[in-house]
Design brief:
This protein is an all-beta fold. The chain folds into 2 domains: 103 residues, Jelly Rolls (Sandwich), CATH 2.60.120; 117 residues, Sandwich (Jelly Rolls), CATH 2.60.120. It is built from no helices and 20 strands. Strands 11, 13, 14, 17, 18 and 20 form a 6-stranded antiparallel β-sheet that branches. Strands 1, 2, 4, 8 and 10 form a 5-stranded antiparallel β-sheet that branches. Strands 3, 5, 6, 7 and 9 form a 5-stranded antiparallel β-sheet that branches.
Length: 252
């Protein structure tokens, strides 16, 4: 099954489609439309028991008298996390926005939007499915100084890291947000089973990420396939609070 969405106005690669998605067990398209009449963090959807859901992004319409800054968010462990870049949308303007990397929420987690001005109409793009599927996100909501394992392929399975767009377009496999107050130096390794993070499995050059911004990993043109026990290691040069990252993977 191929699923597409429009590009990300004001962020990401405008006009590019999302990645291909696998068949899912008992899928459901979620109608999370909301006429937002408050500012700040607004919840649009909560993942039900025994289900997962993937949040791609949203379409929105600002009919406030002035501009409204807006971005996607998700809630995990009772904390809201920014999930997309911020866009200032002019009055009487429609926007399409995508997450840095689509996020798969577990039961009880929430998807939402943050707006600086209202009213603002929003239509999130969410697909809900059984939690027995192999599609999931693996996240670090706090990070340590140095190497951090963010995802390991389950024993007896193979995995594929999914990207924010069609595999024929440059896209990210990891989303990292730096809210630490200072620039951070980061790097990403995709490590074979039994190995350790190092130059022989480094995924692109180290990057300097300014505070208040995302690093969406080195752009690629294909998803990454992995064997059982292979893992993704993310490195940052400080353990300062308000750094977090996630990847989304499909296992078979």
């Amino acid at each position: 099954m191929q699923l597409f969405a429009g590009g990300a106005g004001g962020g990401g690669a405008t006009g590019q489609p999302f990645m291909f998605l696998p068949f899912l067990t008992n899928p459901k398209y979620v109608s999370g439309f909301q006429n937002v009449t408050s500012t700040g963090n607004v919840s649009l959807y909560t993942v039900p028991s025994n289900r997962r859901a993937i949040y791609f992004g949203y379409s929105g319409y600002n009919y406030n008298a002035g501009s409204s800054s807006n971005y996607a968010i998700f809630n995990s462990s009772s904390t809201w996390f920014q999930a997309s870049t911020v866009t200032s949308t002019s009055t009487v303007t429609t926007i399409q926005k995508q997450l840095i990397v689509p996020y798969v929420g577990e039961a009880g987690e929430q998807f939402g939007i943050n707006v600086s001005a209202q009213p603002f109409n929003v239509w999130p793009f969410i697909i809900e499915f059984d939690n027995t599927n192999g599609l999931k996100s693996s996240k670090l909501l706090t990070v340590a100084n140095g190497d951090n394992t963010i995802y390991t392929v389950t024993s007896g399975k193979t995995g594929m890291l999914l990207t924010s767009q069609n595999p024929q377009s440059s896209a990210a496999i990891l989303a990292y947000f730096n809210g630490s107050g200072s620039s951070r130096t980061t790097k990403l390794n995709i490590v074979p089973n039994g190995g350790s993070a190092g130059a022989t499995n480094l995924y692109g050059a180290a990057a300097t990420v300014s505070t208040g911004t995302f690093w969406n990993s080195p752009s690629i043109q294909n998803s990454i396939s992995m064997n059982a026990g292979d893992f993704v290691s993310f490195n940052t040069n400080a353990s300062t609070a308000t750094q977090y990252a996630w990847v989304t993977a499909l296992e078979y």
